[in-house]
């Protein structure tokens, strides 16, 4: 029997195997309030809550949710809270100009745009159905209010993320990554690098 691969597999495993272990240490010095240390169970809960809030807003499967943020727990959590329930996650480089950000948001057709507080001016003129400033206030609705999202039947060939190229020779191009591609990439990296549950991974490149 075929079982489709999905990025949600990693979240489910973290919650089941390491519910009380710290799985994410958030950057303490960042524009929005830091989440500090987050356990496997809490990380999964916040991802589910985000998915449930997207349901409540009427953001359907296959719609794009863009985020303009520095590396943070919210950015990582959104990967699962968005893609894990069939929507498409679009991370945007926070160093881009307002014109460049506007192009990507419009080109991908984002239904939701989440952004760091210090980037409010960058997105001020963008017309998006839902704009969300990340921080303590929006955390209440998006990550901390318990909700149960509508189940999504995994489709490993569905697009999970769209990552835009740097656009050095022309306009940035959206590169679609499927659930299967991301699952295999993450697993292969872990196998070749010999990563185990005792390792601490310092993520320095932009997420």
Our Rg estimate from Cα atoms comes to 16 Å
* Number of separate helices: 7
CATH class: Alpha Beta
What class, by secondary structure content? Answer: alpha/beta
The shape is: globular
Q: What is the CATH superfamily label?
A: ANL, N-terminal domain
Largest sheet: 4 strands, parallel
User: Helix-strand pattern, N to C?
Assistant: HEEHEHEHEHEHEEH
Distance between the termini: 34 Å
Count of the domains? 1
| Range of helix content | 25-40%
Looking across the biggest beta sheet, what order are the strands in?
4-3-5-6
The count of strands amounts to 8
> Could you say what the CATH architecture is?
3-Layer(aba) Sandwich
Compose a concise summary of this entry.
With 207 residues, the protein is an alpha/beta fold. 38% of the residues lie in helices and 18% in strands.
Any overview of this molecule?
This protein has one domain: ANL, N-terminal domain (Rossmann fold, 3-Layer(aba) Sandwich), CATH 3.40.50. β3, α3 and β4 form a beta-alpha-beta unit. The termini are far apart. It has 207 residues and is an alpha/beta fold.
Structure keywords:
207 residues, Rossmann fold, two-stranded antiparallel sheet, globular
Please write out the topology.
Blueprint: H1 8-17, E1 22-25, E2 37-39, H2 40-57, E3 64-68, H3 73-83, E4 88-92, H4 98-108, E5 110-115, H5 120-123, E6 130-133, H6 136-144, E7 159-164, E8 174-178, H7 179-193
Parallel strand pairs: 3-4, 3-5, 5-6
Antiparallel strand pairs: 1-2, 7-8
Helix pairs in contact: 1-2, 2-3, 2-6
